[in-house]
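User: I'm writing a tutorial on reading structure tokens. Could you give me a worked example: one chain, its sequence, then its tokens, then a sentence or two explaining what the tokens reveal?
Assistant: Sure. Here is the example chain.
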Amino acid sequence: MRGKLMFITGLAAGFVLGSRAGREKYEEIAANAKKVWEHPTVQEAAGVAQAQANKLYTESKDKLQSSKIGEKLSTSSTSSSSTDTALTADPLADPLADPLAEPLTVPNSKTTGTTY
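And here are its predicted structure tokens:
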């Protein structure tokens, strides 16, 4: 699957770079992509997908922490020395948690916006 995606990306890049129209065609493609991305339906779908991904991530993290492997990881991380913070960081810490990140607001037909 990854190989197919890379191939399609390469084709698209080759088309854009090799087309006779050059920059003009690139600008047209970029403008169309931006229109599609900013469409309310696409934004709503992206918000739903992000919410589902966050839910699955949280559930998986909780299951891992309550499993035997998670217990071993938490025990080993608390018993290691704190000389190097990169090595002693909690392996189950939330890598997606960014305290500076803005919440995603998605337009919804029922409300003016839902924050995820």
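What the tokens reveal: Strands lie at 105-106, 114-115. The first strand starts at residue 105 and ends at 106.
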